[in-house]
Amino acid sequence: MQEIQKQVHTCFHCGNTGLLKPIGKTGWKNEDIAEDNYGNVISYMLIEHEDWYVFECPVCNKPVIISEYTFDAAEHGPHEITTEYPTIAVSRDGVPKDIYSAFESAVKTKGIDYSICLLSLRRVLEMICKDKDAVGSNLEKKIDDLIDKKIFPPMIEDACWIIRQLGNDAAHADKISVYTYDVEQVIGYVATIIDYLYSLPHRVEKMKSKIEERKSSEKRNEDKRHTK
Ligand SMILES: [Zn+2]
Hints:
Elements (H helix, E strand, L loop, with lengths): L2 H4 L2 E2 L6 E2 L2 E15 L5 E16 L6 E9 L7 E7 L11 H12 L5 H18 L7 H10 L7 H16 L8 H48 L1
Antiparallel strand pairs: 1-2, 3-4, 4-5, 5-6
Helix pairs in contact: 2-3, 3-5, 3-6, 4-5, 5-6
C-alpha cells in the first residue's frame, strides 16, 4: 500500500478526519526518453509525476480525491499533496497560520451545522481585516476601508456583503433558512479572498524568483562559454 493511503486525511464533505477507504489510483508522468535508430531506449529520466488517489469517506460515503505531485528531475524539487475534491480551495502557502486554521475549522463544521459554519466564515473575514490593519467600527466599515486602500479589489465588496448577511442570519436563527448551496458559495468566496490576499502573491513571488534564478544561471553558463 502507498504511504499516502495510510495517512490521515480530512473529508471536506463532512469534516471527518481519519483514515479514508482507498478505492483506486491513477496518475500521469512526464519522462525524457531517448531512443536509438532501432527504438531501443538509450537514456531515461523521470522529470515529474503525479498520482491521484480516490478514497471513500467512511462517515458520509462520499468520494475524496487526493493528488501527490513530485518533481523528480531535481534532488529537492517540489513535492505537494493536495486535496483535489472536495476542495478546501486554499493552499497553506503564504497564509497566516491562524487564518488558515480558522478557515479550515470553519469548513469542517459544514457537515455539522450551517449556522456555525457561516459564523466561523464571518470570523475568518474579521481575522483577515485585523491582519490587514483595517480601520472601522464594524466589519462592513473595515471592508470598505480595505477596498479604499486597494487591498481588497472592489468586486470583493459584494462577496463580503453576502458573507456578512448570511453570517448575521445564522446568528439570528429565526430568519431565513440556509442551504448547502449557500454555505458552499460562501466557503468559495472566503477561499478566493484568502487566495487573492495571501496564496497567490506567495506563489507568484516563488515563480518569479525561480525564473530569475534560471535566467541568471543560464547567463553564468553563457559567460563561462565566452571566457573559454
Ligand atoms: Zn465525509
